[in-house]
Amino acid sequence: MKPAILTAAIFTLVSAHIVFAGPKIAGSMTLESLSTYARDNNASIQSLKENVKAGQGAVDAENGAWWPQVSASFGRSRLLPQPDSSETVDDSVWAVTARQKIYDFGKTNGAVEKRKLEKSEAERRLARGLQVLQHDVAARYYDYLLSVQTVDALMQTNAIAYVEYDKAREKNEAGLVAQRVVSGLYAVSRAEKLKLERAKKEMEIKLAALQELIGSPIGDYFEVEPPSEEPPRFTLPEETGVFNAAVKSRPETQELDDRIAGLRAQIGETRSSHYPLIEGVAEVGDSDRRLPSRNKWEVGIRAKMDIFDGFTRRSREEELTARATALVFEKETLERKIRMEIKSALGELSLADIKMELAKAGVTAAQDNLDFARTQYELNLLTELGDALSRYAEAKVEWLRASYGVRMELERLNLATGGALKIVK
């Protein structure tokens, strides 16, 4: 066995891995920095942010009804000849009119309240979108890191397979092993190489999926910094307390409350249309040919009231009442769904913690086996060091998978509770 061969093989494979990573575009990205980048660049989040701006614009527009409404007009006409005259007369008329709403029995205030609630709904959807984005970024982040760890583990086994094959070939030339042993080790090294190539492709796809989610250009590679290997520690909270906190914190429940309140505001707005609209009117104007009955200044108070609308208002009120009642039942359904999500998340978190402990025991066993194999290998009593290294690498990947699994279940519980609880110690 030549140590230089093993060193050269590992160096070649690791160098190939570094080249594959490509140029960095954002330095070393942690989960937190990826989430921040996604909040600023994810297209869906930007759309939700624009909806919030649109909601504010609608509120401002409805509030504008309380401001004076000023309009101007100008016209020029030609008067037809009178019976006792054959000449035509041209006339120019201009006017400036100002209207100020005085009272409308809550109609405008109801419209403003409805728009405010619609804006609040948009804000709730944005808050929920950010929570879902945080969860999805974490999922793709851990998925990509696992693919990187898998590639690293396969690089180690590839290097060992290459060394084992090279050693067997030397022994075959010396007449110490049969050709079928060399052929078998060649097949193993070839299989390991194909597994590595497939793992690299999968890693590339998962990085592209992460880039697509956070809004960075696909194809521009950057380093992703893994979390500490120290597993997160936590205390499982009591289910009822989690549920009560989730109902108050989940943007969906708050959005339904806003929608119910908005429909009730619309009901009040519809009812107010039974009452008159009272507004003050002031107008100034003049014409080239003023009539004696026309005043240059006009000031007054106007009241407008619909007498009969074909039961339109009553039907509209019944519609809005039914929709509000339907939303009450929808909220009850959502609360049942939240309870099941929390129950499932707590159960999966407990199972993930057990899996992590089992994986940790597997790493310890694989480490002991590797230490023994190295001792035997140095004494030239055992040649299967590659198998021990491979099993240790696989155990390490499984340990990371379990550790990331606990972190993902914590993210899932955080999503289910609407970010209401901080249960990690």
Write the layout of secondary structure elements.
Layout lengths: L2 H19 L6 E2 L1 H11 L1 H21 L5 E11 L9 E15 L3 H67 L5 H36 L8 E2 L14 H11 L1 H22 L4 E11 L9 E8 L7 H67 L6 H32 L9
Parallel strand pairs: 1-4
Antiparallel strand pairs: 2-3, 3-5, 5-6
Helix pairs in contact: 1-4, 2-4, 3-4, 4-5, 4-7, 4-9, 6-8, 7-8, 8-9
General description of the model:
This protein is α+β, with helices and mostly antiparallel strands. The chain has one domain: Outer membrane efflux proteins (OEP). It is built from nine helices and six strands. It has a four-stranded antiparallel sheet with strand order 2-3-5-6, with no helix packed on it. Strands 1-4 form a two-stranded parallel ribbon. The two termini are 49 Å apart.
Structure keywords:
alpha+beta, Outer membrane efflux proteins (OEP), 425 residues, four-stranded antiparallel β-sheet, disordered N terminus
How is this structure best summarized?
The protein is α+β, with helices and mostly antiparallel strands and 425 residues long. Helices cover 67% and strands 12% of the residues.
- Binned, the helix content reads 55-70%
Order of helices and strands: HEHHEEHHEHHEEHH
Architecture (CATH level 2) name:
Up-down Bundle
**Class derived from helix and strand content:** alpha+beta
